[in-house]
Amino acid sequence: MMRRSLVIVMVACSCATAIARGGGGGGLKLNFYSESERCPRAEEVVREEVRRLYEEHGNTAVSWLRALFHDCMVYSCDASLLLHTTTTTGVSEQSSHRSFGMRNFKYITAIKAAVERECPATVSCADILALAARDGVAMLGGPSVAMRTGRRDSRESYYGVVEQYIPNHNDSVSTVLSRFAAIGVDTEGAVALLGAHSVGRVHCFNLVGRLYPQVDGSMEAAYGEYLRGRCPTAAATEDTREVVYARNDRVTPMLIDNMYYRNLLAGRGLLLVDQQLASDARTAPYVRRMAADNDYFHQRFAAALLTMSENAPLTGAQGEVRKDCRFVNSS
């Protein structure tokens, strides 16, 4: 089976499961840790660590955003993505075909360690993922998001269903929209969240289908030639050891801004699903509006990110607060 996935930041899901787990962000609140005095500096510690890691390893901010997407789309925002493979929890979601290219999980472990030093066994890994994504977005020039907290962590991995929830980069617009709709993100919100492709990069393995034997007709000719220069052979595979990639946006590659949409209108969409947004009647009006108004894009992006981050959280007595994000707590 070919391993292709959306880069960040993404058949209908089992909505009944999501509803059963509490959907709609119930139980989450702003300043959950500080108001309860459980860990008054929790969000500050996460922000300090995110900034430190960003300054040392700039690409981490993009990783946080993609990690939150992959975690929240599969059943719940419950940090199941972070679990390693064990006999207790099953195969890690990180081993899924859809997780191809994901990295920097070790730095989430570093953030968790800093929070544990501040207040042991108090702040969930699921909240750390959400807060790190929020702070990463801000560092990438994106909007501020009023992220609520109070999530708890899953005790199991959902490797077996990841591909039912995470869309593929060459899926139809209908499929992508249906998967976002299943977690409460409407068409406008889905177009905004895909704007996360304004940052980061794509492995050539995910591009060569649009470049060979001929350049996709929906792609600007000059852009196609540039991409062929970055990806000079159709034989690129997921096992290519060299880091062969193209940036999503060459103009403002480390800013979450509306250049993504302006590129789509010019035929410079990197992934197939990106370019199709500009021509599909359901999404094209939003592409045009976001291309014309960066503030509007940021507003819609912030709202959609908040909705995604509150998909069916575990709260109250559900789940647990893991001491190590990679493993469930020992009984």
Summary keywords:
single chain; 331 residues; mainly alpha; Peroxidase, domain 1; Peroxidase, domain 2; 2 domains; 15 helices; 2% strand; globular
Describe this structure in words.
The structure is a single chain. With 331 residues, this protein is an all-alpha fold. It has 2 domains: 15-167, Peroxidase, domain 1 (Orthogonal Bundle), CATH 1.10.520.10; 173-304, Peroxidase, domain 2 (Orthogonal Bundle). 42% of the residues lie in helices and 2% in strands. The protein is built from 15 helices and 2 strands. The protein has helices at 15-20, 32-35, 42-56, 60-73, 105-118, 125-139, 162-165, 173-181, 187-193, 208-211, 221-230, 259-265, 272-277, 284-292, 294-309; strands at residues 201-203, 245-247. A two-stranded antiparallel sheet has the order 1-2. Helix 3 (42-56) crosses helix 6, helix 9 (187-193) packs across helix 15 (294-309) and helix 14 (284-292) crosses helix 15. The radius of gyration is 19 Å and the shape is globular. The two termini are 37 Å apart. 50% of the residues are buried. The model is unreliable at 1-24 (pLDDT under 50). Ca(2+) 1 binds at residues 71, 74, 78, 80. Belongs to the peroxidase family. Classical plant (class III) peroxidase subfamily. The active site is at 70 (proton acceptor). It is found in: Secreted. InterPro entries: Haem_peroxidase, Haem_peroxidase_sf, Peroxidase_pln, Peroxidases_AS, Secretory_peroxidase.
Strand order of the largest sheet: 1-2
Strand fraction: under 5%
Tell me the series of helices and strands, N- to C-terminal: HHHHHHHHHEHHEHHHH
Instruction: Give the overall silhouette.
Output: globular
SS elements, strand count: 2
Q: What is the level-2 CATH architecture name of the largest domain?
A: Orthogonal Bundle
Distance between the termini: 37 Å
Main pleated sheet:
2 strands, antiparallel
- What's the structural domain tally? 2
